[in-house]
Amino acid sequence: MAASSTTLGELVVELDEIANLDLDRAARRGYPEAVFCAGKTVEQVAAIAAEIGRVGQATLFTRADAEQAAAVLRALPDAGYDAEARLVAWPADPPPAAGGPIVVVTAGTSDLPVAREALLTARHLGREVELVVDVGVAGLHRILARVELLRRARVVVVVAGMDGALPSVVAGLVSAPVVAVPTSVGYGAAFEGLAALLTMLNACAPGVAVVNIDNGYGAGHLAAQIAAPPEPAPPEPALPEPRSPEPRSPEPELPEPELPEPTSPGSS
What is the CATH number of the domain that holds 139? Predict the structure, then answer.
């Protein structure tokens, strides 16, 4: 990428000193690069947002706090910010939905920030997404009441903390793959999501893929890829036109062999 700089008040940020944007990723993989804001300064996030606006690349800014989101919105005024998901989307409106439907399920209300990150990621990658909230295993009747909706999904994202048991339950009810997202919700022995992660990795029901703790973006991205519309089949190669068989020359007639005259018995 060519060197560029962004002026933020009196501060000039050389972008090549802080980031190397992968602007070709959408062409290679079908999905653009996202910007993980945690750990970046406000000035760094603003410089990246300004460059993205210059090149016109649709982008998600994940794990953005209020200051970082405000910096992105100053550089990209028509972006949209979801404070609960800590996600900024530019442009604010998602593309038209295509492919199969996705359902995002939370075990509890406390899992909503991660679930909304997954939902918005998949939606801005062009998928139809529906959210089902607070249907954890402490009241199994709640998830059983949503089985019909779950079975219409191409893929189900299940977000759960505490014991992390809900993905196994859902995977036992549907034929679609399940993307399990452990969250850091829970008391001391939950070990900030490690207990839920281990439960999900040991799921008895097959067809469960597990992402990292609190990784709503990764879950939404994987679900969007699974639910993507099928690629058009390549055109069949044209068959050559059948050729008429060449006429065969007639077989030459062979002369009949001459047989010897029969002799009478007793003749000498």
Answer: 3.40.50.1970
Placement of tokens 């399940």 in the chain: 178
CB-based contacts of 125, cutoff 8 Å, min separation 6? 31, 220, 221, 224
Q: Is residue 265 part of a domain?
A: no
The residue segments making up the domain with residue 170 are: 102-226
Residues 23 and 127 in one domain: no
Q: pLDDT 10s per residue in the chain (268 long)? A: 444 555 554 444 567 788 888 888 888 888 889 999 999 999 999 999 999 999 888 999 999 999 999 999 999 999 999 999 999 999 999 999 999 999 999 999 999 999 999 999 999 999 999 999 999 999 999 999 999 999 999 999 999 999 999 999 999 999 999 999 999 999 999 999 999 999 999 999 999 999 999 999 999 999 999 999 987 777 777 777 777 777 777 777 777 777 777 666 665 5
Residue 202 lies in a domain: yes
The residue out of 60, 90, 120 marking a domain boundary is 90
Q: Rounded distance, CA 161 to CA 257, Å?
A: 100
Q: Let me know whether 203 and 114 are in one domain.
A: yes
**Tokens 């339950």 -> residue:** 169
pTM of the model: 0.81
Q: Which helix (H) or strand (E) holds 6?
A: strand 5-8
Tell me how far CA of residue 47 lies from CA of 3, 40, 50, 71, 196, in angstroms. Answer: 13, 11, 5, 9, 37
Structure token pair of residue 132: 């089902």
64 and 153 both lie in a single domain: no
CB 150 within 8 A of CB 174: yes
